[in-house]
Amino acid sequence: MTKYLLTFLLAFSCFQLRAQVKTRTKTKAKPATGLAASISSGKVIYVNHCLTCHQADGGGVPNMNPPLIKTSYVTGDHTQLIKVVLNGFSENVDIDGESYSNVMPAHDFLKDREIADVLTYVRKSFGNKGGAITAAQVKTVRAKNKKKTAIKNI
C-alpha cells in the first residue's frame, strides 16, 4: 500500500510541478513596417549617400551644400525633391535666398523604394515636418523624368 501511495504522490507532484511551469512560446520579432521602417531604412541610405555633403545634422556646408533643415526644397513639393535626387545639380542653385555651388551627382541608381525612404527620413528628421514619400510617387516622377530626358536627346 505504501508503494502505491508513494507512486501516487510522486506522480501527483510531477503533475503539480508541470502545471506550475509556464511554457514559453517563441515569438518572432515583427519587422518594422510602414513609416517607422521607411525612416529606419532611409537613415541608412542617408548615411551611405548623403551625409558627407549634407552633414550628420542635415546642416549642409554654407555656400556649397544646402541644408536639409526646414528648407522649402525639403518640406515643399515632393516632385521637385524627387527630381533633385534623380537628376542632381550641376550648376548653382538658390534655396530660400541662399546660393549653393557644389555639384550634386544624380542618384538615379537608387531604387524607387530607397529614394522614397531616404526622402521620408529627411522630411521627418532634422526638425522637418514634411509628409512621407512613397515608392509609387518616385516611380511616377522617374517615368516622367525619363520621357523628358529622351526628348532632350533627340
Please provide a brief summary of the model.
The chain is mainly alpha-helical and 154 residues long. The chain is 55% helix and 4% strand. The termini are far apart.
Description:
- The chain is mostly helical and 154 residues long.
- The protein contains 7 helices and 2 strands, in the order αααααββαα.
- The chain has helices at residues 2-20, 34-49, 51-54, 72-75, 78-87, 112-124, 135-152, and strands at residues 93-95, 98-100.
- The chain has a two-stranded antiparallel ribbon.
- The longest helix has 19 residues, at 2-20.
Portion in beta strands: under 5%
Let me know the average pLDDT: 82
Largest sheet, spatial ordering of strands: 1-2
> Which secondary-structure class do the elements indicate?
mainly alpha
Which oligomerization state do the chains in this entry correspond to?
Answer: single chain
Query: Can you write the helix and strand succession as a string?
Result: HHHHHEEHH
Shape: globular
The number of E-state strands comes to 2
- Which regions have little confidence, pLDDT < 50, spanning 5+ residues? 17-30, 150-154
